[in-house]
Amino acid sequence: MQKVPIELVKPGMVLAKTINNETGMALCGEGTELTDIIIERLKRMNITHLTLKGHPVDLGETKTKEQVIEELRARFVRVQHDSLMQKIMAAAEGAITDLDQERQAHEAAEGGEK
Q: Among positive and negative, which fits the CA dihedral 14, 52, 4, 38?
C-alpha cells in the first residue's frame, strides 16, 4: 500500500482503501481501478490523497528512521540546553519512531508486495 497525492495518480492504478467523503459516504470502493474520469471527479471533490495497492509511484529517495532522527537532532543542536526544546525534540523523535513502525506494519500486512 502507498498513500499518494492525487496529482501523481494515473489511470490503471488500483485503490487499496475505500475513499469516503467528510460525511462517511463511500465515493470509491477498495479494489476500484482508477480511470481519468474517476480521478477528475475525486479532484473536484477535494480528495487530496489516495491509498493505492503496491507501490506504484516513486516518491523519491526515502530516508531511514535513523537518518531522519539524525537530521532532527542536528536542527536542535543550538538549543540543546533548553529543557523545553529537548522535550519537543523527544516528542518529535517518538512520532518519527511511531510512523516508522506503522510503515513497517503496513508493509508486513501487504506481504512485502511492491
A: positive
Per-residue pLDDT reduced to its tens digit, 64-103:
899 999 999 999 999 999 999 999 999 999 999 998 898 8
Dist. CA 44–CA 49, nearest whole Å: 13
Specify burial of residue 7 (Cβ count, 10 A radius: 0-12, 13-18, 19+): exposed
The enclosing H or E element of 83 equals helix 83-109
pTM confidence score:
0.51
What does the alpha-carbon distance between residue 74 and residue 83 come to, in Å, rounded to a whole number?
16
Long-range contacts, stretch 85-89, CB < 8 angstroms, 24+ apart: none
User: Do the strands 49-52 and 2-5 form a parallel or antiparallel pair, or are they unpaired?
Assistant: antiparallel
Cβ proximity of 82 and 88 under 8 Å = no
DSSP state of 13: -
Q: β-strands 19-20, 26-28: how paired?
A: antiparallel
